[in-house]
Specification:
46% helix; 553 residues; single chain; elongated; 5-stranded antiparallel sheet; 8-stranded mixed beta barrel; alpha/beta
Length: 553
């Protein structure tokens, strides 16, 4: 009786099988595992747990075991399963033992349902080889595929193409809308990439917003077509959690064996090509070339020297005067960053600013610019020349939620009237997320600083949004000023901007004024102010002081 109670309460299934392979006994745990009742099991051959196609092989194994019966613990045979009464397969582990019964021998079969263990193993395998967010292969798994592809190159002649992809301005979406929305953006990007390639191609997320695609047996031109297809797919409008988001991606392409003969070099070359694509603008593809290594080395050198210059205080601000119309009164200046390196020589902002942005140096540089601009504004005020100083905000600065507090602290530390500082944000950046832009600009405007919308005319502003933004001035991009006065030049857009600003009660500053004809046109059409080489280039602070004093005299 005690033995029967023990068998009945055992957590594993227990079967007693005679020497003809028929079931003599089954416990309640076995009923749960297989779906049959004990009454249905007793007298049946154990093949009842196997699909028909596996029964003959099982009989052969049983005969082999009967010829040499012995104890067999669990874990000796992998990938065992039995067929449930419903037809589904249940993963199990089995142990065997021998008992004496009625003068003969019988086999005790211990059956353990390992469905939970198998599921845990599956999950562990998934997490070890897959990106948990997108379901794509992870970096480790991709490296296995890449290594295998290189091993097969000798046996299967053909070309490998590696496409390294980085989403354009993903950090902006993450900062503006939060990580939850950012994660959904990555999932959507993964879906679009997968839909743009062949079924057998390997796609992986390496981390962050970086993806990679491995194309086997593909021609050079075909790989470029695939890359362009991915770029086009990513460029389509995307709505995530009610937010309109532009994905976009830049892709670098490298080939084996044309460019590299090992995996590490191929990946490195694709990375170089991707940075080249980014430098060309959003949504671009670039194929690796030998010259890229030199360009990457130069960028790295500029980055390192720029960091040293920032730490050593070797950066410089120059100031371009802004002249009020009518008349010739200097009422303000625009602060412009300049850098001359002891090793690299004079560096143009258009060259080193993008490097600063990619190297996360632009925020500390931007903070330094605001600090220096405030110091100079105080110096001019104390000298009896209260000039308003315009400071350009980088896109990364503008997305910083602490920006308003940082500027307030700086103004208070210098005891500076906020009206003497003007913050400039490009129209394109302002229109990227008008709602958030409006909220942040209202906070900044609440400090008392002036707000200018820079490069106006290039960012496709909505008039409805423009009316809501708390800007004080529009700055017409120099691209619209340059043709004025040339034969056949079109001035309708400039006139329209001036009329629009007048209607909205906004001042207008024209940038890049270089000729008398341009100045006369702007004055005649009601422009409020201008800056450009016609009056002065960007010059050191002491030159501005001399210019203003000369005009006062």
């Amino acid at each position: 009786m005690l033995a029967q109670a023990i068998i009945a309460s055992a957590p594993d299934g227990i079967l007693l099988v005679d020497d003809s392979n028929h079931i003599l006994l089954a416990n309640s745990a076995m009923e749960k595992i297989c779906g049959y009742t004990r009454t249905e099991l007793v007298g049946q051959p154990v093949e009842i747990f196997l699909p028909p196609q596996a029964r003959e092989r099982h009989r052969t194994n049983v005969q082999r075991y009967a010829a040499n019966p012995q104890q067999r613990p669990m874990g000796m045979v992998e990938n065992l399963s039995l067929q449930h009464k419903s037809g589904r397969m249940v993963p199990v582990d089995i142990a065997l033992g021998q008992v004496v019964r009625d003068g003969g021998q019988a086999t005790v079969v211990f059956v353990r349902d390992i469905t939970g263990i198998k599921e845990l193993q599956r999950q562990m395998q998934f997490h070890a080889t897959r990106d948990t967010l997108t379901g794509l292969a992870n970096r480790w798994m991709f490296n296995q595929h890449l290594a295998q592809a290189f091993r097969q190159m000798g046996r299967q002649p053909g070309k490998l193409a590696l496409l390294l992809l980085d989403l354009d301005d993903f950090k902006s979406a993450n900062d503006r809308h939060g990580h939850a929305v950012g994660d959904l953006v990555l999932v959507e990007a993964a879906r679009r990439i997968a839909a743009s390639v062949r079924t057998g191609d390997v796609i992986a997320r390496l981390g962050g917003d970086e993806f990679v695609v491995l194309l086997r047996e593909i021609g050079t031109s075909d790989a470029v077509v695939v890359a362009e297809k991915i770029v086009e797919a990513l460029a389509q409008p995307c709505m995530v959690e009610g937010h309109g988001i532009t994905l976009g991606g830049s892709i670098g392409i490298a080939y084996c064996p044309d460019d590299a003969q090992d995996a590490d070099t191929l990946m490195r070359y694709a990375d170089m090509a991707m940075y080249r694509a980014k430098s060309l603008g959003r949504g671009q593809c670039a194929v690796y070339s030998a010259s890229m290594a030199q360009q990457i080395a130069h960028r790295a050198r500029v980055r390192d020297r720029l960091k040293l210059a920032l730490d050593a205080g070797e950066l410089q601000l120059c100031y371009q005067p802004q002249i009020r119309l009518p008349g010739q009164t200097v009422t303000g200046v625009e602060a412009l960053l300049r850098w001359t390196d002891a090793e690299l020589g004079e560096q143009h902002p258009a060259d080193f600013i993008p490097i600063a942005e990619s190297a996360d140096l632009i925020v500390p540089i931007g903070e330094w610019v605001i600090e220096m601009a405030c110091r100079q504004a105080v110096a001019w005020r104390d000298a009896g020349m209260p000039l308003r100083v315009g400071v350009n905000l980088s896109a990364r600065q503008f997305r910083n939620e602490a920006l308003a507090d940082q500027i307030r602290t700086t103004l208070e530390r210098h005891g500076l009237d906020p009206a003497l500082i003007e913050l400039e944000i490009t129209e394109s950046e302002a229109m990227a997320d008008p709602k958030r832009t409006g909220q942040l600009l209202k906070r900044l405007r609440g400090l008392g600083v002036a707000i200018a919308l820079d490069d106006f005319g290039t960012g496709h502003s909505s008039l409805a949004y423009l009316r809501e933004l708390p800007v004080t001035r529009l700055k017409i991009d120099k691209a619209f000023i340059r043709p004025i006065g040339e034969p056949g030049s079109e001035t309708v857009l400039v006139k329209a901007i001036l009329a629009l600003a007048s209607t909205l009660g906004l001042e207008v500053v024209a940038e890049g004024v270089e000729t008398r004809a341009q100045l006369d046109f702007l004055r005649d059409n009601g422009c409020n102010a201008y800056q450009g080489w016609l009056f002065a280039k960007a010059v050191p602070a002491e030159r501005v002081t001399a210019l203003v004093q000369a005009m006062q005299r």
